[in-house]
Specification:
Radius of gyration: 19 Å
Mean pLDDT: 97
Largest sheet: 6 strands, mixed
Strand content: 25-35%
Strand order of the largest sheet: 6-7-8-11-9-10
Structural class: alpha+beta
Number of domains: 3
Oligomer: single chain
CATH class of the largest domain: Alpha Beta
Distance between the termini: 20 Å
Order of helices and strands: EEHEHEEEEEHEHEEEEEHEHEE
Number of strands: 17
CATH architecture of the largest domain: 2-Layer Sandwich
Length: about 350
Amino acid sequence: MKEIFLSDDIREIHIPLIFSTSGGARAELDKAEKLLKASGAEIVSFEASAGSFADDALSEFTRGARYPVNRIVPLDEHAVPVLGGAHITAVAGAKPRFAKTEDGMAASEYSDGAFEYCRTFGIVSDVENSRPYEHTMDNLERIERALNLFGFTYNDIVRTWFYNDDILSWYSDFNRARTDFYSRRGIFDGLLPASTGIGAPNKRKRRITSGAIALKKIGDGSVCEVLSPLQCGAPEYGSSFSRAVEISTPRSRRVMVSGTASIEKGGKTAFVGDIEKQVDLTMRVIGAILESRGMSFKDTVRSVVYCLKPEYFEYFKDWERANTPIAHVPSYSIVCRSDLLFEVELEAAVSR
């Protein structure tokens, strides 16, 4: 369990869970429930990446949930080693509010005195999968409608997630739709959100399941884009997101690092076919972002490790053994380029 002090009295709590069997999923979720009870914390979002073996445990844990829930599944249910897990985000010391749109999209809201926070996840569209551009546009509009429940707009978003089924076959359509939507909303005139765009199926069998975090300043706080010392900006090769975003309050600073892979300064894939070197470069790029903000991997509160093949996860574990363990959840997913084997998204925080 990791904590971020949002204020002297309010904490955001992050609990990463890793499991590969039905029994393991139940045991980890039971432990999490006890941790939450002991902390007096209430869940504000729940993300799971796991195969059908975890269906019963996850359904039982989230039954009747008012908070947003996101679920993706592995590329192959029968692949070994099995990669599975979940991430719980909760708050203690604040009373979160929950609401759902008419089409069932959930959002949660809470405040720390510097910001109001709104989280939404598990956003899916009913537009036909055969119309990728329109499907993406509708998904983005549904994100905004979920945020509207608490008076937020898309322009308040600081972080997004897009889990696109069969991403390599239609990523250009997705990027074109997102860029058009952002242009219409004036997103490029303000903060460009940090983001993850990964290839993963979902239980609803829709093209996308997505999520976002939005902030509204109400006190002494700030949000800014963070550049990557070792990479160019993603918009330079057609992807509309920031490499990282920093959120500062009187009590803490947090850096949200976008999904990061083995991409060189000029935007090309580095070390094609070499998983060990791709892992190393990915982690060096993230480490440089953290270092630029006075942080290190030891400050990690949340991360997700996406592997094109399940066996690649062991190379990340090798990196941990050689460097430092970090809070993480593994996922068997496709990265947004066919020659990228590995990706990591990460959040780190330090107290003032």
